[in-house]
Structures are given as structure tokens and as C-alpha cells.
Design brief:
76% helix, membrane, 285 residues, transmembrane helix, EamA_dom, mainly alpha, EamA domain-containing protein, EmrE-like
């Protein structure tokens, strides 16, 4: 069960990152974050009301609130990085944040077996190689790398926090709702400050209503990924769940190849293959 939900997380996050990166090339990153997360908050709010999730309110929601504070910063940095550099290069750097939940799992006493350790090493190496990697070039590329590393730390922190935010399914809906509300509040405040400083929140043509379905997809895929990751972490070792969930850059790179015709180099294809081998080792270990 852990492997299934963790791999579902990587698929959802990979597609959400691809969509967010494409949208950020047409809209400010803050606008993409606020609108997409607002849509997710509305949908989650309806689910919480329908399932009676309010009854699950408790101290664990502080973890959701903290994740909501960190998440927008990570998303904004990551979307800006995706807009600056090739998605197949930037996205794998975000997986370095897997060190945070893996470290938490080890601290809490998890001890993966030899096969799983090998799977972790192979999978992480494969994901990094799947991005190129291209660490040389113009200043814009170096800025994208810095933004990606900041995002990685934020994503890893959210990984660790959301895994502790609930113990039941209805509690998970409430936790994700709280996280999204905080996301919108933090992102909205940042957008307001940005506008006051003279940065437009929308293009000259106004709100791109044609992009609303894509914005909704990004927000809903992101929240669904958080949910599947929480389930994966609750039903198995966090070290395994976190590594499998971190395979999302391979999905982003493949989506960029399929939709944007970004070419995969031999090194990237090799990395994708190693990520698959690592996944099999983790799933069978």
C-alpha cells in the first residue's frame, strides 16, 4: 500500500509541477499559487463539510498550519525556477528535499533493510540524473538552481509535517483544508505586497479565464498528492514513502518531453531507468 500511494504521489506532483511551470511562463508565480490553491481550498472545504471533518480538529492541525506557511514559499521558488530553466533540469533538484523526511524517519527509529537502502540510493541518483544535470551556464540558470534548492528544503519540510497532520481520513481532509487556507493567506499577502511594489498580478489582457481549468488542475493535483503521501507515510516506513514520492521529477521531465518537445539526453534516459530500478528495489525490499 505504501508503494502504491507514494507512486501515485509522484505522478500527481509531477503533473502539477509541469502545469505550474507552464502557467508561470504566462502568469506571475504568485498568481498561479494563489488561484490554484484557492480552488483546492474551496473543493476541500466542501469535502470537510460533507464528511463532518470538523470533528477531527485537534493539536495535530498545528502541523498542517506549519505546512501551510512553508508550502507557498517552496511553490513560488519552484515555479519561478521552472519558468527560468528547462523543466527537465530544474525539477530533479527539488528532490533533494527528500533528505528532510528521510532524516526524520531515521531519527524516529526507522531502519530500512539493505535492499531498501540500495533502492533509496539508486532511485535518488536516477532522479538527479534524469535532469541532465546542467550546472553550468548563464546567471539565469544559476538563479534557477538556487531557487530549486530553496524549494527542495521547503518541500521536504512539508513532507515531514503533513505526515503528522492527521491520523484518520476525515482528519486528513481537514488538515489539507487548513493547509490550503494558510497557503492562500500567505500567498495572497505576498501577492498584495508585490502589487503594491508595482509588479502586476495579471497580464495586460486581464484574468486568463481560459487558463482557469489548468489552474484548478494544478491546485487539485497538488492537494491530492499531499493526501496520497500522508496515507503512504502512515501505512509504511517514511523513508520508503518519501523516496518513492520524490520520483515526481521523472514525470515532469517526461511531460515536458511529450508536450513541450524538450529532448531527453542519454544521461536523462539513464536516470529515468535507474529511478525505475530503485523503485522496484524499494517496493520489493
Amino acid at each position: 500500500m505504501t508503494a502504491f500511494f507514494a507512486l501515485a504521489t509522484s505522478l500527481l506532483w509531477g503533473l502539477a509541477d509541469f502545469g505550474g511551470g507552464v502557467l508561470t511562463r504566462r502568469l506571475p508565480a504568485l498568481t498561479v499559487v494563489v488561484v490554484s490553491q484557492a480552488v483546492a481550498a474551496v473543493v476541500l472545504g466542501a469535502i470537510v463539510v460533507a464528511t463532518g471533518g470538523w470533528s477531527e480538529a485537534g493539536p495535530r492541525l498545528w502541523f498542517a498550519l506549519a505546512a501551510g506557511l512553508v508550502g507557498p514559499v517552496a511553490l513560488i521558488c519552484f515555479y519561478k525556477a521552472l519558468a527560468l530553466g528547462p523543466m527537465g533540469v530544474v525539477s530533479p533538484l527539488g528532490t533533494l528535499g527528500v533528505a528532510v523526511p528521510v532524516g526524520v524517519g531515521l531519527f524516529l527509529g526507522e531502519r530500512p533493510g539493505l535492499v531498501q537502502v540500495a533502492g533509496i540510493a539508486v532511485a535518488v541518483t536516477g532522479v538527479v540524473l534524469a535532469g541532465g544535470p546542467q550546472l553550468r551556464g548563464a546567471p539565469v540558470q544559476r538563479r534557477a538552481i538556487v531557487l530549486s534548492l530553496v524549494a527542495a528544503l521547503g518541500f521536504g519540510t512539508v513532507f515531514a509535517l503533513i505526515a503528522e497532520a492527521s491520523a484518520t481520513v476525515t482528519g486528513l481532509f481537514l488538515a489539507l483544508f487548513v493547509q490550503r487556507v494558510v497557503n492562500v493567506a500567505v500567498g495572497g499577502a505576498a501577492l498584495y505586497v508585490s502589487v503594491r511594489r508595482g509588479t502586476p498580478a495579471l497580464p495586460d489582457t486581464g484574468f486568463p479565464w481560459r487558463s482557469l481549468p489548468a489552474l484548478a488542475f494544478v491546485g487539485l493535483a497538488d492537494v491530492a498528492a499531499n493526501g496520497t503521501y500522508a496515507v503512504a507515510a502512515q501505512h509504511g516506513p517514511v523513508t520508503v514513502a518519501a523516496v518513492l514520492a520524490s520520483l515526481y521529477p521523472v514525470v515532469t521531465a517526461l511531460a515536458a518531453r511529450g508536450f513541450l518537445r524538450e529532448r531527453l539526453r542519454t544521461l536523462q534516459a539513464t536516470g529515468a531507468g535507474l529511478a525505475l530500478v530503485g523503485t522496484l528495489l524499494l517496493a520489493t525490499g
